[in-house]
Amino acid sequence: MAQEGKTEHGLSEEEAYFYNLNKDLIERKRKELNAQRAEQRSRELKAQHWMCCPKCGEQMEEIELLGIMVDRCINCAGIYFDRGELELLLESDEPKCFLGSLKHLCR
Questions:
Q1: How many folded domains does the chain comprise?
Q2: Residue-range definition of the domain harbouring residue 28
Q3: How far apart are the C-alpha atoms of 105 and 40, rounded to whole Å?
Q4: Quick check: is 84 in a domain?
């Protein structure tokens, strides 16, 4: 049982108020810091892997293929598409034109 004027943790009502206020502040700050850490980690991973070929690890360059910018490795000539780019190329009026463009890049 709590004493009169005391909470179950033995704090006065005023102490409990400030305890809870600080507890909420600490939780908010912890969430902010965790979000900042996650953002920093994401930036570091992006910097490590940005425009690097997933096959051989060499640098890649952006080239235009039928009006869409795609990524091509300068070493192994692998071609990589960002999300939605392949779908755009496949929706083109002339699918043979797309395949011809790919053959031209492989030469």
A1: 2
A2: 1-50
A3: 37
A4: yes
